[in-house]
Amino acid sequence: IEEEIPSSYSFLPGKELVQVYNEKPDKYELVLALDTGDLDRLGKRVSIFREADRTVNIDHHTTNTEFAQLNLVKTNSSAVGEIIYQIIKMMGITIDRDMATCLYVAITTDTGGFRYSNTTPITHQIAADLVNSGVNVADISQIVFETTSLPKIKLMGKVIENLELLENGKLAFVHITDDMLKSTDAGEEDCDGLVNIGRNIEGVEVSVFMRQRGDDEYKINFRSKTYVDVSRIASRHSGGGHVRAAGCTVKGNMNEIKSALIKEIREVL
């Protein structure tokens, strides 16, 4: 992986098998890319992918570019965990408690605890089978959805302070600078989900969250409620994602990026 697993997922079994990429020019016979919409999302690891004898791309994003030799892209799946579950079942492998826990977390996080529109009857059927395999739903729900670090709480305060409502309350816009993260002792993982603060406001259709990364780079998250396809907006900036949740990374002046995004979103509101 590109960076350390967030501490909020440190409870997952098998984490000791995961390593942060050290940029060694290793060559592998087979490399699989999971939950990755395009090659750019692989970051520094793209060299490993390009040098492999065989490559596989397993994903569910509608904006996937099918960049591997073998592409399994199921856009009707709520999460890649759902696809992996189906593959394991096809192979006739028994899913033990550890495997079920990881798959359940993959599905419940991508569906917002089964609240998002990507949740289907099949999603619930798979989740039920995973629970039958020993998943502790209460413990996972508390850790993933009901436990927040103090730095993140402080960062949420910063988000609320500088949140703007635009376009007659249909667009929520917020940005976080490096200085804000430092002042709250927050890290990258503490930014996860903050885009939903704006989305959850009554009357808001689109929420935009800009996170500064260095002097002139911004990671941008988009969320929408009912009718705006934010994946199309993200795609214009070499990003991607889903109809209701997408993202991209843009370089440039923050105010200019913000103005351009507001103009694009205004056209579809």
Task: Explain the layout of strands and helices.
Layout: E1 30-34, H1 46-51, E2 54-59, E3 70-73, H2 80-90, H3 97-110, H4 121-132, H5 137-145, H6 150-162, E4 164-166, E5 171-176, H7 178-184, H8 195-199, E6 206-212, E7 217-224, H9 230-235, E8 240-241, E9 245-251, H10 254-266
Parallel strand pairs: 1-2, 2-3, 5-6
Antiparallel strand pairs: 4-5, 6-7, 7-9, 8-9
Helix pairs in contact: 2-3, 3-4
Write up this protein.
By secondary structure, the chain is an alpha/beta fold. The protein has two domains: 7-144, inorganic pyrophosphatase (n-terminal core); 150-266, Diaminopimelate Epimerase, Chain A, domain 1 (Roll), CATH 3.10.310. The protein is built from ten helices and nine strands. It has helices at residues 46-51, 80-90, 97-110, 121-132, 137-145, 150-162, 178-184, 195-199, 230-235, 254-266, and strands spanning 30-34, 54-59, 70-73, 164-166, 171-176, 206-212, 217-224, 240-241, 245-251. The strands form two sheets. Strands 4-5-6-7-9-8 form a six-stranded mixed beta sheet. A three-stranded parallel beta sheet has the order 1-2-3. α2 runs antiparallel to α3 and α3 packs antiparallel against α4 (121-132). The longest helix is centred in the middle third of the chain and has 14 residues, at 97-110. It is globular, with a radius of gyration of 19 Å. The two termini are 37 Å apart.
